[in-house]
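Predict structure. Input: Membrane protein, 184 residues.
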Amino acid sequence: MQRAHLRDTPAPPHRALTAVEDAKALDAPAAALAQRLRGAAASAPGGFLRGRWLGHPLHPLAVTVPIGAWVCSALFDLLPGQDEAARRLVATGLLTAPAAVVLGLFDYADLDERRRRVGLTHAAGNAVAIALFGASYAARTRGQVTRGRVLGALGLAMASAGGALGGHLAYAQGAGFFRWQAAR
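Output follows.
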C-alpha cells in the first residue's frame, strides 16, 4: 500500500511547477502583458510569427538553437583548450535568443489566466538566463574564463528551470494544443 501512495504523490519538481499555476500574485502583470500583445498577435504578421502557416507554434523550434548552443558551451567548458569555442557558442545563443523570445511573446497573448502565470514565470526565468549568459560572454571576452564558466553554468541552470516551465506550459497545461487545427 505504501508504494501506491508514493506513485500517486507528485515529485517536488512537479509540485513546484504546478504551484506557479496557483500564484495569483502574477495575475496583474501577466494580464497586462497579454493585453499589450493581443493586437500584434492577432495581426497577419502575428499569425505568421505564431506559425499559422506551418500548423504549429514556431517558438518551440526557435528555442532549440540558443539552448543547444548553451548546452554545447558547457560541454566545451569541460574540455581543455576549448575556451574560444565555448565563448562563441555562448555568443551564438545570445544572438539567437531574441527570435525565441519574440515568438514566445506572440504565443503568450492567447493564454488563459493559469497558463499566463506559468508563461510569465517561464519568460522571467529565461530573461535571467539570457542576462547570465550575457555576463558570461562579457567575462570570457575580458579573459575572465573561470568567471565566464560559472556565469554560464548559472545561466544554463536558469534556462533549464525556464525550459521546465515551458514544458509544463506546453504539455501539462496543453497550451496551444489543437488551437492550430481550429484556425485552418
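DSSP finds ten helices and no strands in the chain.
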